[in-house]
Write the structure tokens for this entry.
Amino acid sequence: MGLTNRDVQKIVENSLENRTIKRALLIPPDFTRLHSCGGVICAMYYELLTQRGAVVDVMPALGSHEPMTREQAEQFFGGAIPYEKLIVHNWRRDVVLLGYVPGEYVAKVSDGIMDEPIPVEVNRRIVSGEYNLIVSIGQVVPHEVAGMANYSKNIFVGCGGSAMISASHMLGAAYGMERIMGRADNPVRAVFDYAEEHFLSHLPILYALTVTTRKPEGEFDGVSLEGLFIGRERENFIRAAELSEKLNFIRTGRPPKKIVCRLDEHEFHSTWLGNKAVYRTRLAIADGGELIILAPGVRQFGEDEICDRLIRKYGYTGRDRILKLAKMEQDLRENLSAAAHLIHGSSDGRFEIFYAAPLLSREEVEGVGYKWLDYNEIVEKYNPSQLKEGWNNIGGEEIYYIDNPALGLWNV
């Protein structure tokens, strides 16, 4: 049984004991982490701190994502935080350079795969000195770049700059997603640890880390908050990662030849977000298998105009090709986060990826290297309302169904 609303309220209150807060910055996840309980926890901090007379700013950790809409914010925070209070982090313009993770260190932790210094950039508000409390809130769950999401990643990627996001994502892509996903210790996390120790240790940061599962009886709109770890110590992240490993790692038992993933139309509007269907299933799917992605809300590829253009130009065409292009083509070299995304979203010929996205044309889908399916036809065959999570038999055909790929990591 997960934590209750009352449990969470008490844990949040306890984290503020013996603190006199004049001005606070809350850094919740964005709408792409709808099932994180991050909005609920952020709302609790906001209400407690404002009741105590503190000035509270709220800056969602957007990373390279689009800002929340008013409707998304209303749903995410339950109406507790005025939309006008949300500060939009711009990953290309709102950051300051704090220094570098040395190339020698990068080479050491990456087995020599990368040896260039990595710039450490964060939103200028975080290091402005105006806050005597910064609360970074987010979900620890398997992740394609950081191994396990959140902790300092919420700062360095969620509130980071283009150069740091690009370098860290490219490091993960070059090292190999399959070697990173689901692991708390890996080269990308080591880079974040170095940056946290050398550039953020003087700041009044509290990390509030959640571990969640989706259950019909869940306390928070069908989500069960299984763990909440608040503090500055890295040990909290390790404890959260261990719990996530128990709860968010799903074993299929055998490699599925066909996986069908549904992307909720309100959560996923781009392949940049929706390709969690590719990342989180690739350890499970059989060689020569088929991944069918039902994407009724996906209307674009990138989360901003530049990344969208680069995805359309170069496509999801395999790790080796993209690594080569990233050295040759200036536009890709200047946007390595897009290059990393193209690598992450490629199957490298091991399995086929089909997108059923009614808001994208067949030409658009096939133009980026995926196979196209008619959404209405495929949903008639694989109707999500008639499928159960996991193995299904559809007219003698065995498929594996995943209702939301953002919530776990699938393996045999």
Summary: The domain at 252-411 is CATH 3.90.226.30 (2-enoyl-CoA Hydratase; Chain A, domain 1). The longest strand covers residues 205-214. The mean pLDDT is 95. The CA atoms of residues 355 and 372 lie 5 Å apart.
